[in-house]
Amino acid sequence: MNIIQKIMNSPCKYPIVALIIMVIVMGVGILCIDTTMNSIEKQHITYTDFTVVDKYISEDGNDEYMIVSDQGYTYVINHDNEGAALFNKIEKGVHYYFVVQNPHNDTDYIHIMQVYDDKY
Are 12 and 49 members of one domain? Predict the structure, then answer.
């Protein structure tokens, strides 16, 4: 008899099948979480929170939206429709939580990807 016939003839076949399904689902879940975490680490995505001290539009060639934190760091929001909506939502003197992408080299600014305030 093969293993499937042994399981089907067993008096506790339903718990065995449930256990097999649970192991498969957990294995796939762990693989998905591990892949996602590796991708996040590879892209240098992290989160931070700070109070916005100043915000302005840079006047150099690329016209990016600039945010200055109370810690003295300058953050950048891309100059597109989503960036404009994000920039307009941010107010000076308010504490926010940010999802940011750290630069790959020391010459770039930190990019803001998402913003959450204390209300949410």
Answer: no
How many Å apart are CA 58 and CA 55, to the nearest integer?
9
Residue pLDDT, tens place only, 41-72: 898 899 899 999 998 888 776 678 899 999 98
Prediction pTM value: 0.70
Q: Which residue type does 108 have?
A: D
Q: Quick one: CA dihedral 119, 76, 103, 72, positive or negative?
A: negative
- To the nearest 10°, report the CA torsion of 81, 86, 91, 92: -90
Q: How many domains does the chain have?
A: 2
* Tokens 């649970």 sit on residue: 22
Residues in the chain: 120
CB 98 within 8 A of CB 112: yes
Determine how β-strand 45-57 pairs with β-strand 95-101: antiparallel
* Domain at 49, CATH number: 2.40.50.140
CB 57 within 8 A of CB 66: yes
